[in-house]
Amino acid sequence: MTKHLHIIVLVLSLGLIHCGPPVDPESIDRQKMMDTLAKLDALKGTFTGEVLNQKTDEVVGVGTLSLSADSEIYNPPTQSKSLLRTVLRATLELQLPEKKLTITFNESYFDPERNLFRVGFNPMLADPRLNVQSKSSFVLTGNLSGDNIKGEVVADGYPTDGMKFNFKNTAGSTELNQALVVSPTDHSAEQLERVYVDSAKKYRFVMSGRTLSHEVDFYKMLTPFQWVEVSYFFGIDTPVLFESAKWDRRTRQLTAITKSSSMSSFAVTYYLDCIAAADVKTSGRLGLPESLECTVRSSNRGVIKTFQLQSQ
């Protein structure tokens, strides 16, 4: 009898558990989202500090990182209905000696257990003149500890060419901001232009830094590349203009392509290929070499000229 009673009690218990109120998956997801949102809210604030070059520890500028928590509706590719998710909004202002760059990141990840966050931006560099893949992106990773965020920002594929920082929550304080003023004499006095001539001074190149979008300008600071505009004079007043020549500091090569402005079907394409010897010094804000060996080719004539150029 006692044995049968135990069985009945067990069955009734299982029945009560099974017949309890149904669990609502959406309410569980909603609660998880609210919990994550609360943890993300702990990151909310404005953080300021110096931004350093990863390799040289040189001060690049002053960064201000603004963080906030938010929620958004998105459409998962595997589901037919829209869902609500938490996101971290992040904007970085980088004050350089000569200008300010503002980046609003469009991708985010947050690990609440480690107070680690990652925000990214894909600048969609689809401009073929820049010779950059459209998937090129950069990522800012930070770890919150008290009032400080320590981290780095790097471009995809170039982990050692980025920047690092240790920002402090300013909390409305102006004392820290006043202490972090970039001296205008650091780099702003340097010319963002370099003129090259051959020994007979018949050929002349004028290279100048290009101002692109904030995102692209920031991206090129995180890579070994520098985009310059090259005006190529060869005995005529009107130069051949290469709008987006790319200087690669690793290979020490300068490459560019441009087309003539002819409206006919016989428009000419010009190719510029330059290289700097290993012992040639580089200098200036653009990091350009002091001398180059260049070849100019055209689609209708082949090699036009090969010559040595020296900066003036």
Describe the model:
The protein has 312 residues and is an alpha+beta fold. The chain has 2 domains: 27-179, Beta Barrel (Lipocalin), CATH 2.40.128.120; 193-311. The protein contains 4 helices and 19 strands. The chain has helices at residues 2-18, 25-41, 175-179, 214-221; strands at residues 45-53, 59-74, 83-95, 100-104, 107-111, 116-121, 138-145, 148-155, 158-169, 193-197, 203-209, 225-234, 240-248, 253-259, 269-275, 282-283, 288-289, 291-298, 302-311. The chain has a 9-stranded antiparallel beta sheet with strand order 4-3-2-1-9-8-7-6-5. The longest helix has 17 residues, at 2-18. The N and C termini lie far apart (108 Å).
Gyration radius, rounded: 29 Å
Read across the widest sheet, the strand sequence of neighbours is 4-3-2-1-9-8-7-6-5
Order of helices and strands: HHEEEEEEEEEHEEHEEEEEEEE
The tally of helices reads: 4
Structural class: alpha+beta
Name the CATH superfamily assignment of the largest domain.
Answer: Quinohemoprotein amine dehydrogenase alpha subunit, domain 2
> What percent strand?
over 45%
Oligomer: single chain
Counting DSSP E segments of at least 2 residues, the number of strands comes to: 19
CATH architecture of the largest domain: Beta Barrel
